[in-house]
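In this section we walk through a basic example: taking a raw amino acid sequence and producing a predicted 3D structure, encoded as discrete structure tokens. The instruction is simple. Fold the sequence below.
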Amino acid sequence: MRQCLWFRSALLALGCLTSLGSLAAQAEVKFEVVTPGVLEVVSGQSNMLRTVTPATLKIHTDTPLQLRIEPPSLVSGASPEAADTRKRATVKFNGGVVASDDPDPQFRLPQGTSELVVEMAIERPTLFHAGSYLYQINLSTIP
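The resulting token sequence is shown next.
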């Protein structure tokens, strides 16, 4: 199962939900982007992109759902990414926060509708070249 969530801005970010196992045949998950997210270069630090407007998502599931958040990955951009680029995605939901660099970056959504707030930070060892960048984050279901 793969559902993509688009966050649109001057810089684009893409999130996808990927199933690592099989959900019950009757399980249904629906997504809605409530607010698109925006990443911008940090003032005075042209090697960093950070969220200035978080993306807000609604996920509706008819069964409880265990998710894992992966670090952002570069899909396309004006300059390639170095291997030692540091990347972090965070998801805020129901009073909790989970980050992709946590020792166990998983969280459980209850049955029903949950609102998630997604943020990203990208730090390169070199400067970002002028242009647009597309980053992707994956939320994977855990059976």
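Looking at the output, two observations stand out. The two ends are 12 Å apart (CA to CA). The chain has no helices and 13 strands. In the next section we compare this with other chains.
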